[in-house]
Amino acid sequence: MEGDVANVTLAHRKCPALTGSARKIKDNAADWHNLMLRWEKLNDEGFTTVGNIANMRLSNVQTRERSSLQQECCKLEDIVHKMEAIVAKMRRLMASQRGLLELEDFQFGREGRKVPLFHSWSTKQFDVPCSILSDAFTRELRLKRTILQELAHSPTSDLSMVYLSCWLHQPFMTAQVRLALEAMLLETGHRPL
What we know:
By secondary structure, the protein is an all-alpha fold. It contains six helices and no strands.
């Protein structure tokens, strides 16, 4: 029994509960990850819907099929609105990160903490991946809105295919975006080193 108490105490010392800035940054990193997963799911749903709209446009939609086209356009609009909500949450994460920076500037001065919160990053270093993520998703959302507005009215099949390709490949979601998220997850301990 006594050995069990020692093991629990030792385990507790190895993995202390996070508080303050460290807790908030770790939670924010998890939120970024979850929001990206939700975005990817919506992107897949949107790709199917964009494909349906493009196919209807290519087959010169007859009068009786226009209601189906309208339904698909409404589905796509709903998907884009959900993506807008995700980007709004990402903006709040950015505001939270900036608030943490201001708090640490107040507490520790311009030099910041002397000891990193996790493995090696200062609080200021979390701002870089957060900015990369926020900028990429904002730009990608702008593209999705354009596709939503233009797809059903595209004059050529080639343009419809460009919209479909842009939706699928997400040109603003570069490798740097995924690396930024993975680096943040590694630093905060969500991914093992």
